[in-house]
Design brief:
The protein has 11 helices and 10 strands. It has 300 residues and is of the alpha+beta class. The chain has one domain. The radius of gyration is 19 Å and the shape is globular. The N and C termini lie far apart (52 Å).
Length: 300
């Protein structure tokens, strides 16, 4: 891989370089294709933003999610078998959103109980592609002389369970929120400017990058239910009745996917089946509905 000599260039230039690398990989990688077609892509053009590795929000996640949730400094240190204090003074988190392609979203809109094969393939093969992107970024950063790690790919990554359901020690949705990429929905999805139908990814590095601002007023600013109680579409869409006005019951959701529709793993020949019905045929499927609502009102 031939890379330009960019180490030490201004932060804004490095940010453009990283964003460009993510976009090029997504547009050119053969892995970003559904396996049963020649041309259909899995993901559209991504959103890429950055967070300060020492943003206090990452410490807050130890209370919000679990004490075991890692800060970026802890995550990078563990990847190199060092202590957090051994890490460089400046750390950054590169976070991205991979919007699910229109054809796949359209296919899932017509379903009421189970995901389509396209959706299941996107969950399975799409996450394999997401892992390839994680590795690609780590390799590029290492080649130009920076420390880098994708926590999801590290041996220390873990998923545990409590009475609220499954939780991990590195939540890609919460990392994306920290990077200003969106806010949460009634169904616990992350509503970005490209909606909730997506996959998230991230890499921690000692490359200093300009932190993207979090412009939302609160963690639910992009959800119509929380802003004006005008939408309950995800409640209606959930075949597991796991979403109510009280929020998202992760135990019900996980039971549905791991028990009720587990047979689809064999039928679709995938290792994991994601439902995704609450992410399609809803106002937040592919946009920020609150911004769209404000725009419509302002335009008469």
């Amino acid at each position: 891989m031939l890379l330009p000599k960019i180490r030490g260039r201004p932060e804004a230039e490095m940010a453009r370089f990283i964003e460009g690398e993510v976009k090029v990989f997504i547009s050119t990688s053969p892995a970003n294709r559904l396996p049963f077609t020649k041309d259909d892509i899995i993901f559209d053009e991504p959103l890429v933003q950055f967070a300060d590795g020492d943003d206090p929000i990452f410490t807050d996640y130890k209370t919000i999610i679990a004490p075991t949730h890692l800060t970026p400094r802890q995550a990078l240190a563990r990847a190199y078998s060092k202590t957090p204090e051994d890490m460089p003074a400046r750390l950054s988190v590169i976070s991205w959103i991979l919007p699910i392609a229109d054809k796949t979203r359209k296919s899932n809109r017509n379903e009421a109980l189970i995901p389509t094969r396209r959706w299941a393939y996107t969950r399975w093969y799409g996450e394999e592609f997401n892992d390839a992107l994680r590795r690609h970024l780590v390799e590029i950063l290492a080649e130009i002389g920076y420390l880098a790690a994708a926590p999801i790919l590290q041996p220390y990554f873990s998923i545990d369970t409590n009475k609220q359901g499954d939780y991990s020690n590195w939540s890609e949705r919460h990392i994306a929120y920290a990077a200003g990429l969106g806010t949460f929905s009634l169904g616990s999805s992350l509503i970005t400017e490209r909606g909730v139908a997506h996959r998230c990814g991230s890499v921690v590095t000692d490359l200093a990058l300009p932190a993207s601002p979090r412009t939302a007023e609160n963690p639910y600013s992009n959800c119509l239910f929380y802003t004006d109680d005008s939408c309950k579409a995800c409640i209606v869409r959930c075949p597991a009745t796991a979403i109510t006005k009280k929020g998202h019951d992760k135990v019900k959701c996980e039971t549905y996917m791991h028990n009720d529709i587990v047979y689809l793993r064999k039928e679709y020949e995938v290792g994991i089946v994601g439902c995704g019905l609450c992410q399609t045929k809803v106002p937040c499927e592919s946009c920020n509905p609150v911004k769209n609502s404000h725009s419509r009102r302002n335009n008469g």
